[in-house]
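In the design runs reported in the main text, the only information available to the sequence generator was the tokenized backbone. The following block is the verbatim input for one such run; it is reproduced so that readers can re-run the procedure and compare outputs position by position.
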């Protein structure tokens, strides 16, 4: 969620990092292998990043930037670039939402209960594909669809038990 918030919010300079795995070994609550660097060959040279058939990375690399949610939030950021921060909403706890002009809208649920709220999105009327739970493919959506009414409002239902408890929609994900 933090990377999603960073990429949706207009403040600052964003940077998405990728990383690698290492063999963790905890002794007295401390990882004694915390000194290990990137995946390396026996001669000390760094192993290349390999791309598996399922588009994940191999050779010990993680490649978070390739995950659907992060890749789609980079697209979201590009779509809303230059748009003002708008339509802020929060529940006074850990549920927040905001728009980026008339180009995108995002809703987060970091509470211990489900979110069910109708909000002003600022987006044109239509059906949008949530780019967090899935993505637009042609004229269809692989996951959650959000219906924005003529007045720009939409209902958002996000369970606190969802794998990714946030929804992001933008004009390029309109069906």
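Verbatim output:
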């Amino acid at each position: 969620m933090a990377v999603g918030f960073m990429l949706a919010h207009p403040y600052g300079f964003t940077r998405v990092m990728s990383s690698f795995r290492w063999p963790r070994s905890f002794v007295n609550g401390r990882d004694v292998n915390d000194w290990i660097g990137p995946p390396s060959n026996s001669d000390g040279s760094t192993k290349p990043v390999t791309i598996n058939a399922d588009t994940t990375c191999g050779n010990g690399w993680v490649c978070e930037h390739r995950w659907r949610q992060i890749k789609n939030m980079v697209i979201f950021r590009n779509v809303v670039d230059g748009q003002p921060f708008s339509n802020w909403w929060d529940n006074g706890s850990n549920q927040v939402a905001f728009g980026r002009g008339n180009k995108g809208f995002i809703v987060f649920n970091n509470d211990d209960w489900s979110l069910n709220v109708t909000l002003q999105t600022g987006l044109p009327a239509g059906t949008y594909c949530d780019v967090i739970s899935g993505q637009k493919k042609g004229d269809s959506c692989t996951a959650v669809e959000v219906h924005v009414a003529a007045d720009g409002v939409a209902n958002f239902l996000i369970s606190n038990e969802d794998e990714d408890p946030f929804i992001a929609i933008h004009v390029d994900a309109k069906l």
